[in-house]
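Quarterly update from the structural biology core.
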Amino acid sequence: MRLQFRRRNLPWLVVLGAMTGIGLLSGAASPIVAAALAGMYGTAVLGSMLNVSSRRVTELSRSSLTAMRMSTNAREAFERARRRGGMIDPGLTLLDVGLITVQTGRAGMDLAMTRDVSQDEDGVRPFIQLHVQPVLADREARIRFELIDGNGARQYVHEMRTYLREGEMNLLADQQLPLAKNPKIAAGDWDLRVFVDGSMIGALSFTLIPSLSDRFRQPGTDVRGAASRLADEITDEESQSLPADDRPMSLEELLRQRGNRPPQNP
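Predicted structure, tokenized:
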């Protein structure tokens, strides 16, 4: 969309301007009516200068429809990034963003999508779901994930080169942040930040919950043993409730499962 004066609109703009001027100078119009006439004429002048191509209208309509599919987390993350000066190209839409925890137990490796991460988990990986329009497709982009702790320190930074293709793309970080027995991290309120080609497109807050041993630590108590037994009991109960052919879900399956849930109010 650009401003460009078109000569073919000049005659009717002159006529409309003369009629508006007569109405304003006659003194018969009240201040409210006069202001309305001036506003209508200004709108007509501006409208005559707008040059909107059908292709641009189609792109804007497509962007609006895609934005309606953004998850609650994506909307929150996008708005926080925008307030911090982040920018995202209209041809790129953040559909979803979040964290995938990894836990290895007797039933095998378990992947879970969550916003409350426990230090009892083996590790955590960030992910995003993007929608790429044709204008930005067929090129390589640099995706950067950051996990910031409650003190503002970057505890996790991971960059990867990704070839953008048209349509939806699910991107999961190649590496994870170790959680269990990691002395460098502390429980509290954290931030997940996502960048595309150096521009922040999402900033999502999440909570890192202390491990069971830290939550139930008491003097003179065998905390590690109690926490271990409790974890084993939970694992046994989960194993009994799982079907025999259960296997870890992929990122696509987790997102599909999430999409089938009823929408939640922000």
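The first helix runs from residue 10 to 25.
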